[in-house]
Amino acid sequence: DRKLGREDAAAFPRESVPELVILSNLFARATQALVLSKAVRDAYDSLDFEMRTVADIQKALLPPRTPNVPGLEVAVQLKPAARAGGDYYDFFELPGGKLGVIIADASGHGAPAAVLMAMTHSITHTLPCPTNPGELLTHLNAHLARRYTRPTGSFVTAFYAVFDPASGVLTYASAGHTPPRMRRRDGSLAVLNRAQRLPLGIKPDEVYPEQCISLHPADRVVLFTDGVIEAVNPDGDVFGTIR
Asked: Which of 222, 227, 224 has the alpha carbon at shortest distance from 81?
């Protein structure tokens, strides 16, 4: 059989053998590093593609437009920290010209939070005409806690409000969510936190009471997730609740 090597037994000087062994080991290590680098790059590209797909699906679950309610201006903004996340908002055009607005934040980050967000969206839309905030949150909580969140320890904070443009009354209920802020037309500030209860998915039989507040022309209500108050600048300073 033909051997891979030099036929002359003295072709490699004895003093050069250690150097040749080191060079061959370095070449083997370099080859292995290139193979592993390509494998890592391929895995990253695959994961990045999957996360972009998850992000596209998540965006498709959000309302395509803001609702048109006489006498009311509505604005939204969603900017995930990663490609996908657990933030969720939705609108419900209800009988009598009323508007339902829900904002929620699934625990965790990335794909797991996005999946929990999609579950929340799906369950929310199984309740026809959610005119009662407390009823909707109780419905969501029961389904999440009994089927999805308890085995993993996940949960969802949520705030649901229904605005009646005829009376100017905002009726709301909260499930452990960051309290919305309200700015009155005279410049005074208020926090909507008097109907706080546990986040969704923790206690199956939790009931969510409702609270009402009257709004007047030029009043503003801001609903947001903790991504706002927990934002950090380049110096590591947290934005905070006061700001």
From this structure: 227
